Amino acid sequence: MRYVGAGTIVTVAVLLVGQSHCRAADEIEQPPIQYSQSTPENRVSKLAVQLAAGESRLEYDQRVGYLAALLEALDVPIESQMLVFSKTSLQRHRISPRTPRAIYFSDDVYVGYCRSGDVLEISAVDPQLGAVFYTLDQKDTGQVQLSRQTDNCLLCHSSSRTEGVPGHLARSMFVDSSGQPIFSAGSYSVDHTTPLEQRWGGWYVTGTHGNQRHLGNMIVRGRKVEGDVDNTKGQNVVELSDRLSLDTYLAPHSDIVALMVLEHQTLVHNCITKANYTARQALLYEREMNRALGEPPGHRFDSTSRRIQSAGDDLVEALLFVDEAKLTGAIRGTSGYAEKFTGLGPHDSQGRSLRDFDLEKRLFKYPCSYVIYSQAFDALPREMLDYVWQRLWDVLVQQSDEVQFAHLSNEDRQAIVDILRATKPELPDYWREAKDSATQAEPD
Questions:
Q1: Are 170 and 192 a contacting pair, CB within 8 Å?
Q2: H or E segment and range at residue 113
Q3: How is 211-257 classified by DSSP, letter by letter?
Q4: C-alpha span between 56 and 68 (Å, rounded)
Q5: pTM recorded for the entire structure
Q6: Euclidean distance between CA atoms 427 and 217, whole angstroms
Q7: Contact 385/398 with Cβ under 8 angstroms?
Q8: For residue 6, with 0-12 CB atoms within 10 Å meaning exposed, 13-18 middle and 19 or more buried, which class applies?
Q9: What is the pLDDT along the chain (444 residues), one digit of tens a residue?
Q10: How far is Cα 80 from Cα 108, in angstroms, rounded to an integer?
Q11: How many alpha carbons lie under 13 Å from residue 97 in its C-beta half-sphere?
């Protein structure tokens, strides 16, 4: 979300983001997307309707406002709490190392909370629109209303950092004692491909990770970052009470495992939205060209296929953790998030799940994203979904020897196929009918 009332550096940064946003916004507001005019259909929009009709209500708490009630209503676990102290969101004036912003998330909802904040910031993953943003007034007026936001949030959440579509992002940067980012020192967009040593600048991080290093829990004194920074005191931190008062937060954690899951999830969600938008836009353009050129309905242009394939390939690579940063030691969180997340399943007859963690060499034991179960994935246009399933078949069953998938062992591929066959009802028929297994198949 945009920076408000910032200094020169932040103002310039917003202007640059705003320019790319304007170009993206022009496109997403045109058919077939029509982002702002379209009616969302997601978990938050459904709750908004229920609240407006009096079918649901949220209890107000003097300590955290509507936060706890909202998380319960949206089924967002408190264990997912992460604390970010960089001034990089809508309520930047509320954020500092002593008063970080808390973020909570589930598979399809994100909630932001600031101590003494004016609003709760909420975003939902909409199957057709991608990220849709809302606010909820934190005043105890007796009238709880979720309000959709279509302008300010998109300044940062619909740019090159989110694949040019309304999406989510995580950033790592050097931050001074007031919470102000030091942009001159650079920053990193973070997902599962980012090395740990570049992650979590401006975030609190609780958990252990051995000798691996990261930028979390670090406050830069002054406004200059020169050479290698010493963040020894920021490593393997398991509690935060000596750094801030935790009385106005729901939990004392900023769990390292939750952070890693969030960074993976946002990448895949953005790729799904990009695949959705690309296919819909390409197919609309093709229909218009067919009419203009007198071609029969359904005539396929090579350009349409190429656009679908390009976005589909990016999605497949994100789903299969291509270029995932390797871990060199065990990762352990502090909040119980890992156990909560794993228990959600679904599991096959052997008890295996795409939510099973590894956390020693990589994030997950079976490197295929659990986001494949999402409504957003299933809602992809048929042409895109067919292409993605075929690519996954080629890689996992036909043993594609493309170099980007070399990280997948035969055992990985077989386990993923078995789990999907047992837990994904929407699999294409040829996945279920085939007798060959991934371990039996020979590369072409």
A1: no
A2: strand 109-113
A3: T----TT--BSSS---SS---GGGSS----TTTS--TTSS-S--BHH
A4: 15
A5: 0.90
A6: 43
A7: no
A8: middle
A9: 332 333 333 333 333 334 444 455 688 999 999 999 999 999 999 999 999 999 999 999 999 999 999 999 999 999 999 999 999 888 889 999 999 999 999 999 999 999 999 999 999 999 999 999 999 999 998 889 999 998 665 555 556 677 789 999 899 999 999 999 999 999 999 999 999 999 999 999 999 999 999 999 999 988 888 778 899 999 999 999 999 999 999 999 999 999 999 999 999 999 999 999 999 999 999 999 999 999 999 999 999 999 999 999 999 999 999 999 999 999 999 999 999 999 999 999 999 999 999 999 999 999 999 999 999 999 999 999 999 999 999 999 998 899 999 999 999 999 999 999 999 999 999 998 874 444 444 444
A10: 13
A11: 21
| Tokens 């390292």, located at residue | 256
Could you give the angle at the alpha carbon of 360 between the alpha carbons of 314 and 355, nearest 5°? 55
Percent composition of the chain: helix, strand, coil (DSSP 3-state, to 5) = 40, 10, 50
Encoded tokens for 374: 């999402």
